[in-house]
């Protein structure tokens, strides 16, 4: 597990997702499956979805709902 896992704030997720989406759009990719493994809360998921919409890329968002022992709650509901 990455050392940064569980430390990303929702605004970090938005910035990272937006930057990635803009980069792949610049390379000619128009559709992406975002298999998001850093979804620590509903706010994290919302931030990533907002970023994909803001970038204007066609995307399918994949929630990674595995147990997260590195977070306070272990998972979210």
Overall description:
This protein is an alpha+beta fold and 77 residues long. It is 40% helix and 16% strand. The chain is built from two helices and two strands. The protein has helices at residues 10-26, 42-55; strands at residues 31-36, 58-63. Strands 1-2 form a two-stranded parallel sheet. α1 runs parallel beside α2. The two termini are 21 Å apart. The relative contact order is 0.23. The model has no long low-confidence stretch (mean pLDDT 83).
Key traits:
single chain, 77 residues, alpha+beta, two-stranded parallel ribbon, globular
The main sheet comes to: 2 strands, parallel
Could you give the count of β-strands?
2
The proportion of residues in beta strands is 15-25%
Structural class: alpha+beta
Return Rg in Å.
Answer: 13 Å
Order the strands across the largest sheet as they lie in space.
Answer: 1-2
Q: pLDDT below 50 for ≥5 consecutive residues: which ranges?
A: none
- pLDDT average, as an integer? 83
**Strand/helix succession:** HEHE
What would the principal axes of the Cα set say about the shape? globular
Gap from first CA to last CA: 21 Å
Helix and strand layout, with pairings?
Layout lengths: L9 H17 L4 E6 L5 H14 L2 E6 L14
């Amino acid at each position: 597990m990455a050392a940064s896992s569980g430390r990303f704030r929702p605004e970090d997720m938005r910035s990272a997702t937006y930057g990635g989406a803009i980069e792949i759009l610049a390379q000619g990719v128009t559709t992406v499956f975002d298999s998001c493994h850093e979804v620590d809360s509903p706010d994290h998921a919302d931030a990533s979805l907002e970023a994909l919409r803001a970038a204007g890329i066609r995307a399918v968002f994949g929630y990674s709902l595995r147990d997260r022992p590195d977070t306070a709650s272990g998972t979210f509901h």
